[in-house]
Here is the input.
Amino acid sequence: MDLRLDLAPGWVTAPAAQVDESDAWSLSLPVEGGVALEVLIPRSPPLLKSDGETFYRNLTRKWQAQHGKEVAVGWGHFGSQEAGPGATRWLIGRRPSRTGEGVVFHLATVQAGRAYSVLVIAPPGSDALPPEAQILLAGLAFNPQDVAAPLSLPIVDVAANSAAVASATSPVTTRWRRAGSRVLVPEGEVLSALAQAETEAMGDTGMLTSFVFQAQALNGNTLGAGWTLEGFRWASRFGRDQQVPFASRGRLDLTAAETWGADGRLPVTLVLRVDETETPLAAVMEARAYCGPAGPWTEAMKALEKGARAPLRRLAEKHGCPDAEGKLAIQTRWEAHGVDHLSRERGVEMPLPGYGVGVRWLEVSLDPQPGSVGDGLLERLALVLMFEPEHR
Here is the structure.
């Protein structure tokens, strides 16, 4: 039986000499700092003496006998239709690696009386088979001609075959549903420290006297936050030093639909209201996606609860889900000059990515003019909406 693999860009194959020696195809998906995924596909699948269901039953017992409670066993379907006639059914066993430095997914399927297997070594914390591996499995095609010779594995670059990307991606996720939201404003000790830094930066020229941030969810689909910064500058008038007051007041509101559709479009409305300001102020909206293991995502969520957005952004840059053009993020910018009220309604379009489908989020933040009074405070205000894939 021949085996054909549509391989997405980024995967690296082992040299032919290594393949011949091990009698297995070896693939890796490198990232910065090491290898994110390793995949082994034996080239000589054995011919079964029993039926497929008996093989699956015996293999499950073998895994449980070898690894006990550490192994979790289940089923997965990968192909042109999830669990449909075009999909391949795989028995999956998940367990920690012997070194504890990764998670091993052992997959097996019976085709034309032969037992095919795939071994995936994923990063620590991978509770589910990584999206990149799901896409790779969806690209495996079996030729029903049963031959005893070792498998030949033609490798096709998916970048030149958009239809292959679509067929591999569509079964993984049909849409994304809202899974959480965060309104981030500086508060407590962080707010006091930032305000002190702003005052020290002004030196003898003035002082920031009042700083108030208000975070609120206006309703189920709208997040909002307001701010008021007040202070004074020293200025010489008529030969005397006088206090000249300044202020920055406004609010930022984001309304988004509950579901991000499979067509990649999310209807949103962003309102930036600036009631008082000295310098131009902008609002930046970014759509990002993450296709990595669950562990780092959980840690980034914990950091977000504490008001830190940097870990989440680093995840998107390191394990993002690029679209067909290789873009990792989509950005839109609104600028308010002076006192202004800007309202924009549009659709945020993020196509299905070529490397799998993961969580995605919308982040809206203020972008004050660098060096303006209160810039360190205002840039901490942000509205974040998270969306998780929904399987149907």
Summary: Helices lie at 16-22, 52-67, 131-138, 162-169, 188-202, 294-305, 310-319, 375-378.
